[in-house]
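Module 6 notes. Inverse folding takes a fixed backbone as the condition and produces residue identities as the prediction. Think of it as a translation problem where the source language is geometry and the target language is the twenty amino acids. Below is one complete input and output pair. Work through it position by position during the lab.
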């Protein structure tokens, strides 16, 4: 007889049959935990790479705000309105872009720390098994 989820009802199996299947169940558990660990590492590495890319983009734009600030100071000192005002607008726009990109990178790195580490679940499983023995 099968259960609604498709699993076989094990109530009528003998104790020796159930004990004989323990190694296979443990093997399946270990394989599942290793696969979960691999998936977690892959996802974490991807998130770290994307976060690093956002930070690099922010640093690129921040790098180019220095010449814009220099142009602002030079033009502001040599003339009084339109040229330095334009340089100030460029500087502020580049600074805002750098801040937004940096925040996107930081948020991506924070996402990494929120993900559950599969190694923790393995440690919990080992502790449960030791407590049972």
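Target side of the pair, the amino acids:
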């Amino acid at each position: 007889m099968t259960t609604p989820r498709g699993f076989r009802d094990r109530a009528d199996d003998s104790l020796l049959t159930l004990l004989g299947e323990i190694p296979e169940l443990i093997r399946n558990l270990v394989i599942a935990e290793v696969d979960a660990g691999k998936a977690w590492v892959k996802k974490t590495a991807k998130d770290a790479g994307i976060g690093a890319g956002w930070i690099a983009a922010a640093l690129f734009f921040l790098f180019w705000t220095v010449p814009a600030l220099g142009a602002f100071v030079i033009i502001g000192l040599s003339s009084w309105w339109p040229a330095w005002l334009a340089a100030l607008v460029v500087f502020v726009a580049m600074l805002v872009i750098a801040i937004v990109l940096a925040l996107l990178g930081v948020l991506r790195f924070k996402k990494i720390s929120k993900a559950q580490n599969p190694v923790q679940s393995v440690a919990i499983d080992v502790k449960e098994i030791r407590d049972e023995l």
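Reference fact for the lab report: Residues 22-78 form the longest helix (57 residues).
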